[in-house]
Amino acid sequence: MLKTVLGKVGFVLANMFVMVILHGNSKQFWPKIPYLSLKDESTGEHARLLFNTLGVVTLFQALIGRLPRERWVARGVVLAAMPAALPLIIFFGQKVLRLQGHSAEVYNLSMVPILPIAAMVAEDAIAKRG
Questions:
Q1: pTM (2 decimals)?
Q2: Under 8 Å CB-to-CB from 4, ≥6 apart: which residues?
Q3: Rounded to whole angstroms, how far apart are CA atoms 116 and 19?
Q4: From CA 120, how far away is CA 33, in angstroms rounded?
Q5: Residues of the chain predicted below pLDDT 70
Q6: What is the pLDDT, as a whole number, of residue 26?
Q7: Phi, psi for 112 (deg, rounded to 5)
Q8: What's the confidence (pLDDT) of residue 4?
């Protein structure tokens, strides 16, 4: 039980760490990573960032032996579904909730831990069904 919880916390923290590195901004002291980092602040680029983040963490987990084969299909579904859902999440904040300024920034920043948690929950649900 404890090992499972620590693995899930590790997955979320790894995704948050990779997302911050790949997102980058004008104040970062590390260079942007070619092909993986954001090119601009568009919704499509953020969906690509989410895909790249999940992909890097998945690759790392597979390389160190922390991603069991029975979860590969579930992770593949999550790798496709989460970035596809991100434009809807952004649309919800911008058009439905009509968030602007500081509120929009808080909403967007809250996605950094929420998206990996949602990915983990979706993967668990898919793996249990399969």
A1: 0.92
A2: none
A3: 10
A4: 25
A5: 26-27
A6: 65
A7: -60, -50
A8: 84
* Amino acid making up residue 1: M
Closest by Cα among 103, 101, 108 to 46: 108
Q: What is the 3-state secondary structure (H, E, C) of the chain?
A: CHHHHHHHHHHHHHHHHHHHHHHCCCCCCCCCCCCCCCCCCCHHHHHHHHHHHHHHHHHHHHHCCCCCHHHHHHHHHHHHHHHHHHHHHHHHHHHHCCCCCHHHHHHHHHHHHHHHHHHHHHHHHHHHHC
Q: Which amino acid is at 121?
A: V
* Tokens found for residue 116: 């990996």
Using only C-alpha atoms, what is the Rg of the chain? Answer: 15
Amino acid at 66: R
What pLDDT, on a 0 to 100 scale, did the predictor assign at position 78?
97
Nearest to 15 by CA among 122, 126, 106, 111: 111
